[in-house]
Specification:
The protein has helices at 3-14, 17-26, 28-35, 71-83, 85-106, 147-213, 219-253, 260-265, 283-289, 291-311, 355-421, 427-461; strands spanning 111-120, 130-142, 317-328, 339-347. With 483 residues, the chain is an alpha+beta fold. α1 runs antiparallel to α2 (17-26), α6 runs antiparallel to α12 and α11 runs antiparallel to α12 (427-461). The radius of gyration is 37 Å and the shape is elongated.
């Protein structure tokens, strides 16, 4: 609010009769300025398209985890949506915001209170009869300068922000469930690779012992085979520990104690593979889908409205109040004689030592903080999409290359094993080929997990994992409702 409006308000307070009415009419321009809030502008130039590679095909990402075709993952996601305690806390904050909106809207209505009593005098010469009384008091504040309406606007924006925050918590929780399930699948595949490799290395160790006993090779081959087998065997407990930790994390995400999830994960299953074709919406559309961006925008709108709430304290406050009552010595005649009064008052702040001005400055600073937070959220959302899309494309390429490498390593290990048994090559070449195969299989499994994880992160970055039904916006029916 401009200082000129406050100056006019002070003049209207010391005027009389028609002068006061004219001053209040002149202040109508200030009231209009205080009750109008422009839509927030981020000031960030949103690009028209993405620099990262992305097909033109559009993909429905509301329930993107189903595109991974993993029934157990779908079960985990459903359980997380129903039982996750982070989501429950966000839902509770949403209900708090809804109640705050109802409370702010109720200020637009008159306040009514009823009273009644019974009195009896005691002592010498007192009247022994009972005196009955009853009354009704009413008060109402005229929202001339938007203090109430801006409070309602701020509460409505807070409710929208809480709804989008709930959606964002769900988006993040679902993403963590998907990433953890993919990590567990990858660990299981690596466990299977380690156990298969250990079985082969047991055979190699036995062959080396036989050849050593036959005097065909030295004990060096036996010791090298023992080293190789021990190293592979040592990796199995570490992988089992990682699997248990991941299963326990999933249990927490779906709101249950550890134990059951580990048993479900130990069932044999492949690493989920994302769809080959996946497209992305334009950056502006993605920002409209991102609940964290929408929540930050709503918070900025709420803080902007609170600036006008603070400014309105510098303007006159008009209140209407009245009461009616009756008293009698007989309940049958309680309402025979009713008295009442009506009072209209106006008050104006003259001096508070700068307290109100400090509240305005605080509200403006809060709005600046919210603006910066909104801008930062927009930039991070754009960064997430660009980085995740590039990561997904690179992961797909790595999977193709490493699949060829595994095929070649598998053939080389098969040939080396046969040639060693025939005595054509020494044990060192067999060890090299076996290690190359183990590395190729683990690298391919890691690349497949990275591809699936990149898909999850990209769909998260695009705003997937929640539906519009999750966003609980306030409706106008909340206004004017009784507390």
């Amino acid at each position: 609010m401009k200082h000129g409006c406050a100056h006019q308000a002070r003049l209207s307070f010391i005027s009389r009769g028609g002068i006061a009415a004219l001053a209040l009419f002149a202040l109508g321009g200030c009231a209009t300025a205080l009750t109008t809030i422009d839509a927030p502008q981020s000031g960030i130039a949103v690009p028209a398209g993405w620099t990262a590679p992305a097909p033109a095909i559009e993909t429905d990402i509301d329930q993107y985890w189903q595109l991974l075709d993993d029934p157990l993952l779908t079960r985990f996601v459903d359980a997380a949506i129903a039982n996750n305690f982070d989501i429950a806390q966000a839902a509770g904050r949403l209900e708090q915001a809804r109640a705050s909106l109802k409370s702010a809207s109720a200020r637009r209505l008159p306040r009514l209170s009823a009273s009644g009593g019974v009195r009896r005098d005691v002592g010498d010469f007192s009247d022994p009869d009972l005196l009955l009384s009853g009354g009704l008091d009413a008060s109402w504040e005229a929202d001339l300068f938007g203090q109430i309406s801006n409070s309602v606007t701020a509460s409505r924006a807070d409710l929208a922000a809480a709804g989008y925050s709930l959606a964002d918590v769900q988006r993040l929780v679902i993403g963590n469930v998907a990433l953890s399930t993919i990590a567990a699948r990858s660990t299981l595949v690596q466990l299977r690779i380690a156990r298969d490799t250990l079985s082969n290395q047991d055979e190699n160790l036995q062959i080396a012992r036989w050849r050593n006993q036959a005097g065909l090779v030295s004990s060096l081959d036996v010791e090298q085979a023992r080293v190789q087998r021990a190293q592979t065997a040592a990796s199995i407990p570490a992988l089992e520990s990682d699997l248990a930790a991941t299963a326990n994390a999933i249990s927490t995400l779906i709101g249950e104690p550890p134990g059951r999830v580990l048993g479900l994960l130990q069932q044999d299953a492949a690493i989920p593979a994302p769809p080959d074709s996946f497209g992305m919406s334009a950056p502006a559309e993605v920002l409209r889908r991102r609940p964290d961006v929408r929540s930050a925008e709503a918070s900025l709108y709420a803080d902007t409205a609170r600036i006008n709430v603070a400014r309105a304290q510098l303007l006159p406050l008009v209140q209407l109040s009245g009461s009616i009552g009756s008293s009698t010595r007989s309940i049958n005649s309680l309402f025979d004689i009713i008295t009442g009064n009506l009072f209209a008052g106006i008050s104006q702040l003259i001096f508070d030592g700068g307290q109100t001005r400090a509240q305005i400055d605080t509200a403006q600073a809060s709005a600046q903080i919210s603006l910066a937070a909104w801008q930062q959220t927009i930039l991070r959302a754009l960064e997430d999409v660009e980085s995740s899309a590039t990561d997904l494309d690179a992961s797909r390429q790595r999977v193709g290359i490493l699949a060829d490498a595994q095929d070649a390593a598998n053939n080389a290990a098969f040939l080396a094993r046969n040639q060693y048994q025939a005595g054509i090559i020494d044990f060192q070449l067999l060890l090299t080929s076996e290690n190359q195969l183990l590395s190729a299989r683990n690298s391919l499994a890691a690349a497949q997990a990275q591809r699936a994880s990149a898909f999850v992160r990209l769909t998260q970055a695009l705003g997937g994992g929640w539906t519009q039904a999750t966003d609980t916006n306030p409706d106008d029916s909340a206004e004017g409702s009784a507390p």
